[in-house]
């Protein structure tokens, strides 16, 4: 039987089944990447709601798992060598899960690195830029009279959408015919841009028909529909 007693986070959010992978998350674009991937892979897991609206990521229990104080994070009781493994950063977790299950990532070495390249594109560009746009367009930042920050992030978000549009022309998925962690990493952020930030007037989403069609294909997958609701907000 796996022993998770060495993980402080488990004393605040105890596992019901200690042999299952433990997901600590909240249904944000970064958080749902992992629940969607887990649903796609069919790996047994338990989801624990870490309520970011109550600053639960800044508790000592969660910081012991991720000192950066961000969701998502996981503890896999059956990590490399059969030993428990804790991980944070959604891109790293996606790569780990894909390699663990030997799915959602190409077997071919060159295609594998190309997939990782697109995951990094999301992590370094799409997520940070779309997130800043959301702050200045939908949240407290909209009260700032100086609109240069909003213009900056809107223009960069449009540019990144253009990169995706070019990549998806003539392709079903980012890597062509194979659905991968590159799609899972990216589509929750495009969904947020359209459906939560409601930034169509700002970005002009009709200018990116390939990307929007791809988004709808991603959303139609059963694993996406389920994973987007995990963990439940309570």
Q: Can you put this structure into words, describing what you see?
A:
It is built from ten helices and four strands; from the N terminus they run αβαβαββααααααα. It is α+β, with helices and mostly antiparallel strands and 234 residues long. It has two domains: 9-103, Glutaredoxin; 109-223, Glutathione S-transferase Yfyf (Class Pi), Chain A, domain 2, CATH 1.20.1050. α2 packs across α7 (181-196), α5 packs antiparallel against α6 (148-168) and α6 (148-168) packs across α9 (209-220). Residues 18-105 form the GST N-terminal domain.
Q: Widest sheet: strand order? A: 2-1-3-4
The tally of helices reads 10
Beta-strand residue fraction = 5-15%
Q: In percent, how helical is the residue content?
A: 40-55%
Number of domains: 2
Q: What's the level 1 CATH class of the largest domain? A: Mainly Alpha
- Oligomeric state of the chains in view: single chain
Spans of at least 5 consecutive residues whose pLDDT stays below 50 are none
| Class by SSE composition | alpha+beta
Query: Overall 3D geometry?
Result: globular
Following the backbone from N to C, one meets helices and strands in this order, namely HEHEHEEHHHHHHH
Q: Mean pLDDT across all residues, rounded?
A: 96
**Strand runs, count:** 4
Describe the sheet with the most strands. 4 strands, mixed
Domain GST C-terminal: 108-234
Family: Belongs to the GST superfamily.
Organism: Neoaquamicrobium sediminum
Domain GST N-terminal: 18-105
